[in-house]
Design a protein that fits this description.
Helix content: over 70%
Order of helices and strands: HHHHEEHHHHHHHHHHHH
Number of strands: 2
Number of helices: 16
Largest sheet: 2 strands, antiparallel
Shape: flat
């Protein structure tokens, strides 16, 4: 089914980003409204899952659709409404991957509140189900909802008002992003708690595949492709996106260990409990402090254990190293933008994205 896209939208008071993201939200609302209507004909429970999925897709920063629109309009794309379904598709992809990632990590909260799995777990527990079975039901609902969001991303592009060859190219772009993210997620699972010690380069590659490609590189390429950008422009936005995305993930790893839970909404002991092989851990493995730090990985670390791990990571230089590495990737992104032939307004926009990525606290 083709998702109808509004061709008229009031001029924005705050610029292109506001205008385009309003169109993205309208597109997503129509997608979810259609899904809830179809699901209601199959049963109240299924309609409820679609309502929960809609709630899970709300409230985000809309980073990925904003990048699609920034590249599209910045490279001369004339009609943000035409790009809205593609931008919305990347937001649905993000929703899907977040839902699945929370299942993989056994998380039942996100940003300090119950996620979709947590909502369904609490509901099952309230009905007298055992805690183990309630957790299984919650995670099952999250997997199903993630599947719906993932297929929805493809549907939005397939139903967009685009030339046939461009539509196929964009579907390939989305598929490449999914393929890379799945490969990175598998590496993340395999590296966590593994007896083998992946190198820092392998860990960085995992981070790029898992996050940078679908969150930054692919959205920028998608917007540029819709705008009919040159090969040079496509290479530049891809390089900038890859470097910004890697810097973003490195900062995310730092926040996961050293961030303020009240600000980040993330547990400061989660990475330790899962034994995640982040660049912080990959660096620490090469240091004398590793033997003490290794004892704190896995299980259920206490607040005291987490504080000790943070001290060890600072003492061995891992924190400084990863902070420097994030700035190194940020510098590469700045250099790629400075040396490019991209329009000045787009360069400024992407420089702003970069600075927000590396200076964020959540």
């Amino acid at each position: 089914m083709t998702i109808p896209i509004a061709r008229q939208y009031p001029p924005a008071a705050g610029g292109i980003e506001f205008d385009g993201l309003g169109l993205v939200d309208e597109t997503l609302d129509r997608f979810f409204s259609d899904g809830k209507d179809r699901a209601a004909r199959m049963g109240a429970g299924y309609a409820g899952l679609w309502r929960a999925l809609h709630a899970a897709a709300q409230g985000g920063k809309r980073v990925r659709p904003a990048l699609v629109l920034a590249a599209y309009t910045g490279l001369g794309g004339p009609d943000p409404a035409a790009a809205a379904p593609v931008a919305a598709a990347f937001e649905l992809l993000h929703t899907a991957l977040v839902l699945h990632d929370d299942v993989i990590d056994h998380d039942f909260k996100r940003r300090g509140v119950p996620n979709l799995a947590g909502v369904y777990r609490a509901r099952a527990a309230g009905q007298g189900t055992s805690l183990e079975e309630a957790a299984h039901r919650g995670q099952s609902a999250a997997i199903i909802a993630g599947d719906l969001a993932l297929t929805g991303a493809y549907r939005l592009i397939a139903g967009a008002d685009l030339a046939a060859d461009l539509r196929l190219t964009l579907l390939d772009e989305l598929d490449s992003a999914v393929f890379a993210s799945a490969g990175g997620e598998l590496l993340d699972v395999e590296f966590s708690g593994s007896r083998e010690q992946p190198s820092l380069q392998e860990v960085l590659r995992m981070s790029r595949l898992k996050t940078a490609v679908y969150s930054f590189e692919a959205p920028l390429r998608a917007g540029a492709l819709m705008a009919g950008a040159s090969a040079d422009a496509l290479r530049t936005v891809a390089t900038a996106g890859r470097c910004i995305g890697t810097a973003y993930q490195l900062v995310d790893d730092l926040l996961g260990m050293f961030g303020d839970e009240a600000v980040t909404g993330k547990s400061s002991t989660g990475d330790l409990a899962e034994g995640k092989c982040t660049p912080l851990i990959a660096y620490a493995r090469l240091c004398p402090e590793w033997e003490q730090l290794a004892e704190l990985l896995g299980g259920t670390p206490s607040r005291q254990d987490a504080a000790r791990a943070r001290r060890l990571l600072e003492q061995c230089g891992a924190r400084d190293y990863v902070e420097d590495l994030a700035e190194c990737y940020a510098a590469r992104a700045r250099a790629a933008l400075a040396e490019s032939v991209l329009p000045a307004a787009l360069v400024a926009e992407l420089e702003g994205v970069l600075e927000r990525a590396v200076q964020r606290r959540r």
